[in-house]
Amino acid sequence: MLFLSSLILSILSSLVVADSVTPESLAAQFSLSTSTSLPFPAATQASSDTVQSLTAWGLSKNRLQNGNDNIAFVDDPFPNSPAPGSTTNSSGPVLQVTYPAGSYSNGTGGAQFVNLWNSTQSGGFQSMLLSYEVAFDAGFNWVQGGKLPGLRGGADPTGCSGGEEADGIQCFSSRLMWRPNGEGEVYAYIPDSNNLCKDKNIICNSDFGDSISRGSFTLSAGQWNHVTLLVQMNNPPDTANGNIELYFNNVQALAQQNLQIRSASNLSINGLFFSTFFGGSDPSWATPDEQHTYFRNMQLWGGNTPSTLSGNKVSSGSRAVGSISVLAASLAVFALAW
């Protein structure tokens, strides 16, 4: 009986290992041959010095969009609580984000900025992988939910978030969200083509972004969590074969295909969209107390090959591409780095 129990445990362990997928293996699988690791300092830094250090991350307009006073490089609060399945545990400072009591939306708490790893739209990255670790204060109050970093692209550095609709021409964004009790999802501003909102894994909001596979993973407070986000652009632009995948603690949590992420061929993926705050856009989302998240080991991989999955042509009722809009998107590229 003891032998049988040991055999069962051995089989189960091998299955868990087989299901584990590292960011490096995903990058190889999808031919993402270009990579970068965002630099962290060797010592802790106050907010003002942290803002200066982050300019080395290649920020749009060389500055944060907001939250200068809410970020700092601090000692790791959970040095002995690595993400489940993690094989590494860094020892240096981590990036702390503060959400003041009563804050909600990106104008009152948290921080937001755009990393321009790829600042060229035409012929830029068509697939990108983002990997990072995130931790929440022990006893973190999730309230109704909040945003976490993801990926974005397009000439408009402020669109496709905050209720600015995605038309597939100017921009797109795909962040993560936490919901009550730490339930996670991918939160995307993309066109709602081919009856996307009827998909059982999609929750659409006509004024804001779309929730993809809400509750497909659960974030834990008081320890590190590892998330890896893959975005592959649809190709050609009038075919809904875009692909978004999320891996949580090195295990696939969701995969959503049949997406039209863009409707113009010159829309590519820029890089990290560091965007985190409580909300929501009204006080019901506000955190009652000051709280914090922490980030470390932020890495990006990129490639020039878009999705090769099969997909349906976008129906005639979906948003069309206008030549004036495409021209405006091309001209707006120059504003990204200003």
TrEMBL record:
Record keywords: Lyase, Signal
Domain spans labelled Polysaccharide lyase: 88-298
Organism, as annotated: Roridomyces roridus
Protein name, entry field: Polysaccharide lyase family 14 protein
Cited Pfam families: Polysacc_lyase_14
The organism's taxonomic lineage, starting at the top: Eukaryota, Fungi, Dikarya, Basidiomycota, Agaricomycotina
Record InterPro entries: Polysacc_lyase_14 (IPR048958)
Gene3D superfamilies the record matches: 2.60.120.200
Keyword presence, Signal: yes
Signal peptide: 1-18
GO-annotated molecular function: lyase activity
Source domain of life: Eukaryota
